[in-house]
Amino acid sequence: MPSQPRDLPQLLGEARRWFEEGLSAAMAAAGAAPVSPTQVQLCSVLDEGGTTVSELARRMGVTRQTAHQAVHGLVAAGILEQVPDPASARQRLIRRTGEGERAHRQAQAAIARLERHLTERIGEELAAALRKALETPWGPAPAPDSAPAPDSTPAPDSTPAPGSAPR
Known about the structure:
Layout: H1 8-29, H2 37-44, H3 53-60, H4 64-76, E1 80-85, E2 88-96, H5 98-122, H6 124-135
Helix pairs in contact: 1-5, 3-4, 5-6
């Protein structure tokens, strides 16, 4: 008996874990300090000149507390540092240290290798289609009441005529 098809969120999560596991293994092989997936995500949204914790949290879609925890761990590991924000005396910018820059370059190279490996596995056409689909703006998530219920699609022979009242 065939199993239920997996939904897109599950498939996207598995794909993300594939990249996270490959990146983690590559970084460990290079002798880099171990980092969590949240810390990897934080480093990927960090601006060259530095970014505030609030902005990092917004870009990551997490709370400021979660972003602070990730920053704290990376500062302790010597990958990030906190510096005064020249635009605001009340804020601090988070930026990469020299070691953080080196780790970032290693991570970028590892991700490029993983992308090449994926392309070899699934083919250039599918890899390009995957990239195009993920780079296409999806817009905001629909409101709960605007998404059709799974069984609310009318049968092909019962489609109401334009302008008629629904049954």
